[in-house]
Amino acid sequence: MTIGILAALVILFFIFAGLATDYLWYQQLGFTRVIMTQWITGTALFFIGFLGMAVPVFVSIDIAFRFRPVYAKLNSQLDRYQQVIEPLRRTVMLGIPIVLGLFGGIAASSHWSMILQFLNRTPFGKTDPQFHLDIGFYVFSLPFYQGLVGFASAVVLLSAIAALATSYLYGALRFSGREVRISRVARIQIAVTAAVYIGLQAVSLWLDQYATLTDGSNKLLTGATYTDVVAGIPAKQILAYAAAVVAILFIVTAVIGRWRLPIIGTALLIVISLLIGAVYPWIVQRFTVDPSAKSVESSYIEKNIKATRTAYGVAEVKESNYDAKSTASKGALANDATTTENIRIIDPSLVTDAFAQLQQYRQYYAFPDKLDVDRYKIDGKVQDVVIAVRELNQTGLGSSNNPYNSTFVYTHGYGVVAAYGNQRSADGQPVFLESGIPVKGALGTAKNYQPRIYFGEQGPQYSIVGGSGLNKVELDYPSGNDDNGNNAQTTYAGNGGPKLDNAFKKLIYAIKFQSEQIFLSDAVNSKSQILYDRDPSTRVQKVAPYLTLDSDPYPAVVNGKVVWIVDGYTTSDQYPYSAQRSLSTSIADTYTPAPAYATDQINYIRNSVKATVDAYSGKVTLYAWDKTDPILETWQKVFPSTVKPMADMSGTLLSHVRYPEDLFKVQREVLGTYHVTDPGSFYNGDDAWTTPNEPTKTSGDTSLQPPYYLTMKLPKQDAAFQLYTTYIPQQVNESNPRNVLTGYLAANSDAGDTKGSISKSYGKLTLLTLPKTDNVPGPGQVQANFNADSTVANVLNILARGDTQVKRGNLLTLPVGGGLLYVQPVYVQSTSDTSYPILQKILVSFGDKIAFEDTLKEALDDLFGGDSGATTGDAGVGGGTTGGGTGTGTGSGTGTGTNTGTSTGSGSQSPALKQALADAQSALTERKAAYAKNDLVAAAEADAKLQSALEAAVKASQ
Questions:
Q1: Which of 235, 254, 363, 405 is 20 to 30 Å from 126 by CA-CA measure?
Q2: Averages of pLDDT over each 10 residues, the chain, 958 residues
Q3: What one-character-per-residue DSSP string does 824-889 give?
């Protein structure tokens, strides 16, 4: 007994420790209202669910037992059952309701979110087209009513089972051949219970008619179809009334004692449900809808289209025809200077290794696999940049990764690294505008700039920081510049975590993280803080549990601070007539893996919240971005004062707000079908689009091409930071699908820089529709053209010689020059461990023409008759190298990289290799001239010379 009590106390203390540490975390952030509301609501619902389940079951058992027949003659088998159960009767009578009550309490408490939304519901101000009820009824009220009826039905059903079992066991219900004998009390109890249960089913059937409007099981559309409206909904209404009548018949039986009427009524209810609930709808569908589905379903398709476009925020998309030119004429890009100057030639998914080798400095720092794209005003001019945070990566510590170092010494990353998106150095490296340790550059210019990264996507599970400052133990950054050649050290001075200022807090955190270091180490003092849950998404999700977060938080330097910007969505799957989509499947692409099982269906989404997380202090700030969203309004009633008005956002922060990628991906997936607003065309599916597959991937990889951020000028619009994607025809099971461009969708991502005021253009969707008769090549076809071009192939073979490999960057599509320009950077990387990709060439395409040069400026000029009229970021940069260069970096504390590759004219090449490369270049020039003159004989001779030169180059390089 003593051991059991002690074990229970230990378990309870562990539970208490977990709750206490959670409270301290929320308290430190200033969001105690969030956790207390969840706890209070969850606890209240648990007891409501527990009592709501346990009490009726107990009362049902108690009534059946208390009013059992005293002198009932039982068979020998029931006698044996009674003898076995009797010693445990009280335990069973209490135990069964308690166990069931626990399940009921847990089930009820898990629905705290639904209950709070119902109690604080906000009208949408729009009604559905069928019942003319406010949309809020379907989003907030209907799920609550259905959940309540379902819970009550389960309680009544379990109570009935308990009553029947008890009545049978104690003789109130007996079977003798074909005769059934039942006592008066048992009859009343069973009849009343059956009446309540069937009455609940009547309510459920009545609610089901409204649920028809959110039913997504129909292959054609979400919502009520012709068959539902003509047959299904009336059938549910009739069945609800019929069930109510049967429930009344059971009440009559409880009074008069005859079972004939309710039994007949139940049988008729089953027959009616089959006839009008299944047979009649089938007849309507088979003989009325199927022969003329296009016309019969027209009005319902129209409702579906309208609701879907509204629910996904694409109803106001600006659609315009774009008759793309296919002829690249001289000077065609002169009017698109802003776009061409900002064409991003630095691929954020390929330059991670370059950032690491040039800017990582130590093995305990790391950059993400894919960098982020943002824009900054540099010298009065807005520039697109590729940006990343130099985060702490303790796995790189090797043998030094011991408990003390990982907890007290290596606690944070250091600085932001940013490169111009449209520039490259002469040897193909990124051009940094912010780099180094200590940080230097154009971003961290504020006097109070704080470069230390304590909160990020790659931080350790927890760190203990802070103190008196007299005993600095945290490694700040690698330096070696003091008198003893040591690294710079620091003591955390922020307010980022709960304080460990007493033994109790040390103990509960030692239990939470299962580490005695927290309790015993002398490095922990009264001013120490423990930092944990440091990922920006985790922090935002905990303080705003009602949000669905974007999968790509990104860093920005704002007013001297590094902050993470996280987009939050409010979603629902209960918007009437709106098409349902799996969120995780819709956002899947090259960088976001598709889920194995999609369970996150939605049919309504709003980017309602913009959140920031301070990378130094961990402070979370929520801003109401879409203040008109009823779901956000509802949650603001639940958690008042936790979300600040957008007017509190500074102009600098506003200038770094982007249109969120995940929302855009969902919208592009929806618009692939729902750009069609004509019901007939929608039904035919003759103009359905899809996102093209990533063109740079190998065959068999069906991941979609991601959207890209670019500063550009769309037709008849001002230049702005845009997020764009392309469309090709939707084709199913075709061996040779058409990869022609059908549409171009862009979202304005420029929110402006005026405090408290969002630019009117922000969030506007523009859809450029290409003529159906045109065959403008899509990304896949353009990539195939690049791959098939013999000149390009030959040069790439040269670049890929020896221990190097060619990596193709993101294939960008830009509506310039009256047509569509494709741009793809080409990188070369050595296969050595310390190598990184070097930008060597640029591929461009316009119409059916291709150019392949060392710089974007040269490629565009070549493509557009010798003078494109374009201004580019790499104009004037020394050309890349025909022979190719492969960057390698030492990753040393100085952060400098060295280009150990070879290039044409370089003194590092052997004379034989130089001559072979020169011969190859000469052959390429002759070949190009021969094709220009349509001289196939000369072209063949040039090909032979090129082959010989390549063989000589390979031999010379070995």
A1: 235
A2: 84 91 96 96 97 96 85 60 72 92 96 97 96 97 97 96 87 74 88 96 97 88 94 96 96 90 94 94 94 94 97 95 90 90 94 90 90 93 94 88 91 94 91 91 87 93 82 81 66 93 94 91 90 96 97 94 97 96 93 85 96 96 95 97 94 96 97 95 92 85 92 92 95 70 96 92 96 87 90 83 85 94 92 82 92 92 90 74 39 36 38 73 75 68 73 63
A3: EEEEEEESSTTEE-EEEEEEEEETTEEEEESSHHHHHHHHTTT------TTTTPPP--SS---EEE
Question: What are the CA-CA distances from residue 646 to residues 159, 304, 637, 895 (Å)?
Answer: 52, 32, 17, 40
CA geometry: angle at 675 spanning 669 and 680, to 5°?
120
For residue 487, give every residue at least 6 positions away whose Cβ sits within 8 Å of its Cβ, in sequence order, or none: 475, 476, 477, 478, 479, 480
> Could you tell me the end-to-end alpha-carbon distance of the chain, in angstroms, rounded to an integer?
81
Angle between helices 112-119 and 32-66 (to 10 degrees): 100
Integer Cα distance of 317 and 325 in angstroms: 24
Q: Which class for 571: exposed (0-12), middle (13-18), buried (19 or more C-beta within 10 A)?
A: buried
**For residue 552, which of 691, 760, 314, 723 has the smallest C-alpha distance?**
723
**80 Cβ contact partners less than 8 Å away, ≥ 6 residues apart:** none
How many Å apart are CA 478 and CA 854, to the nearest integer?
37
Biggest alpha carbon–alpha carbon distance for the chain: 116
Question: Could you tell me the pTM of the whole model?
Answer: 0.88
H helix or E strand, kind and range, residue 949: helix 936-957
- Note whether 407 and 359 are within 8 A (CB): no
- CA 14 from chain centre, in angstroms, equals 34
Integer Cα distance of 72 and 169 in angstroms: 11
Residues 279, 294: Cα–Cα separation, whole Å: 23
793 burial via Cβ count (<10 Å: 0-12, 13-18, 19+): exposed
CA distance to 444, 828, 916, per residue, from 794 (Å): 44, 15, 14
- Candidates 553, 517, 213; CA nearest to 374 is 553
Nearest to 198 by CA among 248, 264, 237: 248
Burial of 91 (0-12, 13-18, 19+ CB in 10 A): exposed
Q: Which amino acid is at 701?
A: D
Asked whether 333 and 781 are in contact (CB, 8 A), the reply is no
